[in-house]
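Table 4 source record.
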Amino acid sequence: MRFTKQKRHRKAVRFFTSCFGFREPFKVLCDGTFVHHLIANVIAPADTALTNILGAPVKIFTTRCVVAELKSLGSSYSDSVDAARSLMVARCDHEKRKSAIACITEVIGEKNTEHFFVATQDAELRKKFQQIPGVPLVYALRNALFLERPSAFQQESAKAAEEERSRMTELELKMLKLKKKKVANDEGRNSSETEEEQILETLIPRTDVKMTRIDKADKAQFKRKRAKGPNPLSCKKKKKQGNTDTASQKMRSQVRSQEGDGDNSARNRKRKRSRKNKTSTEL
């Protein structure tokens, strides 16, 4: 039961905050019957009890007319008078003192612009406020406090307000009509220009077959894909030709030097032989 009660209270608070703009800390306007019930049933402190119901910090208000009415009831209500005096006072614009019901109805007004939660034990006053949109009601039963569910009238008024918000205003409709006219005029001009160009193309034959530079620039050009070379990292490095050339040149020079030595030795030998022959002939 306790869980369902808290869930119902949270749902009602969410309805009033989302549809009627109630904000924390919530303001609670109490009449004399509610204050007297709190003191008679020892529901104290009152602000903590109300915060437990609404799930948010609370400011408690009353009016001067409510305090004066409690005074007029006699000495049995002295404790409730002291408790009412300790509360914050809501401003009531009337000069003469009125009854508590009339004063609270005047403070709430037709739309409850101050966003008050009304706490009362008067059943007739609760029925009256159920016919006003955006007036949440709090009442007490023995030692427990309760938040009333939104009435059918309040739910219907919230739906109607949402529909009005979703609709466009007269200014917005006028702006849309102007935009549509501009778009229609622009489209008509573009279509007329394209028709004139088509007619001119059909009437004037094209003599130049060659494409001009402008036509070539306008025409989409596609690049052919060419075969790419192999990946340089996957290929073996080529041997340097300079080293091989130097090695071959060294080998050639060695071979030539050897051949030159052989020729020189043969020549020397021949010369010696010729000298011996000469000596023999001379003898």
